[in-house]
Amino acid sequence: MGTYKNGINGPFRGKTGSIIGSSWKDVDYIKGFPRRYKNKGKPSEEQMLHHKKFKLLNEFFMPLSQLLKIGFGNYLSSATARNVAFQQNFDHAFQMDENNEPKLNYPAIQFSKGTLFTAGAEQLELLDDNQLKVSWNPKTYGLSGALDDQVHILYYAESWKSMDGPDHPPLRYQGEVQFTHSAAAGELIHLWLFLSDSERKRVSRTVYLSITNNR
Predict the structure, then answer these.
(1) Residue 11: is its pLDDT beyond 60?
(2) What is the CA radius of gyration of the chain?
(3) C-alpha closest to that of 151 among 118, 114, 113
(4) In principle, which of 33, 144, 178, 179 could form an S-S bond with 117, CB 3.0–4.6 Å?
(5) pLDDT per residue as tens digits for the range 33-70
(6) Whole-number Å distance between alpha carbons of 132 and 182
């Protein structure tokens, strides 16, 4: 029960209903109790599955903010690059494993969205000394694209959780690039590439390639 001090206009002390009267350093306060929420019990299977998917995709995209800013640069007026990447990928970025647990569907993941033409004829090769070679058609044929378009490349080695690519984006007219990989023997190497113009204002869709490290 709360009490008044010095009449009805004086400070209020104690608890009445959902409010508390108190004083701190000679200043009188009236506070409300924090709202208590009932325990809703364990999450449903659907909620747990959604949480697992969210965690998988979040951890995968976390180190890629700069790449996502390029790939989804035209959609960042009201969202972060990672949020846009979630919106563009969440519905199709997963498949279920043999234990009925979600895993990433790597070929379906997109790191970009735009109208710039892809290069075409994209290929991935293994070379000696842990080298990867990525090649593509260097010509534009007067269509949407320019010879100095940048080719953004990302590869992923799942066993090492390793994401990497060339130190600097090669250009469309160069037609190929080589760089070192760290995939384990027998491991499937996932690789994605997309193009942007020289000012990174226009981008292409993402192309997926893969190869098994049998060297």
Answers:
(1) no
(2) 27
(3) 118
(4) 144
(5) 555 555 567 889 999 999 999 999 999 999 999 999 99
(6) 10
Q: Where are the alpha helices (DSSP H) in 11-149?
A: 45-61, 65-71, 81-89
Segments of the chain assigned E as strands: 3-4, 12-16, 19-24, 27-32, 94-96, 102-104, 123-127, 131-135, 150-157, 162-164, 176-180, 188-196, 207-212
| Residue 74 to residue 109: CA distance in whole angstroms | 18
Report yes or no: 65 and 90 within 8 Å, Cβ to Cβ.
Answer: no
Residue 205: both structure tokens together = 């869709």
pTM across the whole model: 0.79
164-181 b/e with 16+ CB inside 10 Å = b?
A: bbbeebbbbeebebebeb
For the chain, domains (ranges, CATH) are 3-32 (no CATH), 42-113 (no CATH), 114-215 (2.60.40.10)
Report residue 170 as tokens: 């090669």
Q: What does the chain come to in residues?
A: 215
C-alpha 174/C-alpha 134 separation (Å) is: 11
Q: State the average pLDDT for the chain.
A: 87
- List the single range of 5-9, 18-22, 77-81, 174-178 with lowest mean pLDDT: 5-9
